Amino acid sequence: MPVINPSECNIFVQIWVDTNALQNGSTNGVYLVDSNYNNGSSEEGTASLKTYATTNSKICWQILNTNINSDVTLSIQNFGNASVFGAGGTPQQYSSTIWTGQVQANGKADYSITFNVVKGVGISTTVCPTLYVHS
């Protein structure tokens, strides 16, 4: 499946990182929000976001620094697989800070996002939000 362009997405998830609070392996200073609150999403502003989506929704994930003046480099490294991505919807890299994917199967699934923060030394952190997909 070709990489989905963010302009094709109908749900957007942002991962905000306070690089001053972040420590290796910890989710302190990590805040997830999405554009689907009116459709049932919850736990916004935490590392445990619950995103509600309809089958075949295209989702765009983006990582951002809370400090716009920071010289820290953020990048999404990979996504763990989840049943709701189906056979061809697993998120793929669009750029170092943006990944896109599609939910192709109904159900509830936790998934993982691992990202890196680099300023001198690298810090790797994984968050585990949840997707709820329905017809």
Number of helices: 0
Low-confidence stretches: none
Following the backbone from N to C, one meets helices and strands in this order, namely: EEEEEEEEEEE
Give the name of the CATH superfamily: Inclusion body protein
CATH topology: Immunoglobulin-like
Q: State the secondary-structure class.
A: mainly beta
Tell me about the largest β-sheet: 5 strands, mixed
Distance between the termini: 22 Å
How would you describe the overall organization of this protein?
The protein has strands spanning 11-17, 30-34, 50-54, 58-65, 73-79, 92-93, 98-102, 107-110, 113-119, 121-127, 130-134. The chain is mainly beta and 135 residues long. The protein has one domain: Inclusion body protein (Immunoglobulin-like). Strand 6 and strand 7 (98-102) form a beta hairpin. The chain is globular and about 45 Å long. The model has no long low-confidence stretch (mean pLDDT 94).
Task: Compile the SSE list and pairings.
Layout: E1 11-17, E2 30-34, E3 50-54, E4 58-65, E5 73-79, E6 92-93, E7 98-102, E8 107-110, E9 113-119, E10 121-127, E11 130-134
Parallel strand pairs: 1-4, 3-11
Antiparallel strand pairs: 1-2, 4-7, 5-9, 6-7, 8-11, 9-10
Keywords:
135 residues; mainly beta; 5-stranded mixed β-sheet
Give a concise summary.
This protein has 135 residues and is mainly β. The protein has strands spanning 11-17, 30-34, 50-54, 58-65, 73-79, 92-93, 98-102, 107-110, 113-119, 121-127, 130-134.
